[in-house]
């Protein structure tokens, strides 16, 4: 099994070298795989994740840019000690997972390793966190955020994803959330939202009536296109007339 490349002094005082250890873990999404670095942190900020869905976004992460050079990469979620990759449907994990592992090792273990994310992005994340902490919020919103951070988010991250609080409509009792990583494109994401997250929030906070997922603009377009194609296929099946087997 491979492990982190770093320098240690052995009993004789000589320098020995170990390989960087990268573990892989499956997720509920067959198109998402979680890569764990137990010996060396990935993100420099604890309890933070950051998702890149394009090479344009990845200019803020030299590691993400390297990974996007691999064919079949759809999105990348960076966490404190893990990285989740979503792949395109027509690519197989057999070769891709090894290429991702090799890229991570080469990047993280390089003697002149670059930061995983730029200083500009680190500063922006810290500023956003500080701004959120300074916001005046109701007791209900504070309870929702605390429940997400302590009970929901750790379970989501275990599955290679993350969740981001986006808002609460007090009139309708609707909580708006954004799923990331493996959970975002998972076929069971709706069940996760409704049966899991919504059920827990409603159980502990009576003001919560519903949970809705916030999608990025490109995700909304893809969802509408999928629904349109699905509707066309159903219509085509409904118009098929069974004429029996062809005559010879």
From TrEMBL:
Record-level Gene Ontology MF annotations: iron ion binding; iron-sulfur cluster binding
UniProt-listed InterPro entries: FSCA_dom_sf, Nfu/NifU_N, Nfu/NifU_N_sf, NFU1-like, NIF_FeS_clus_asmbl_NifU_C
GO cellular component: mitochondrion
One Pfam family recorded for the sequence: NifU
GO biological process: iron-sulfur cluster assembly
Every Scaffold protein Nfu/NifU N-terminal domain range: 22-111
Protein family according to the UniProt entry: Belongs to the NifU family.
Protein name per its UniProtKB record: Scaffold protein Nfu/NifU N-terminal domain-containing protein
Organism name: Candida orthopsilosis (strain 90-125) (Yeast)
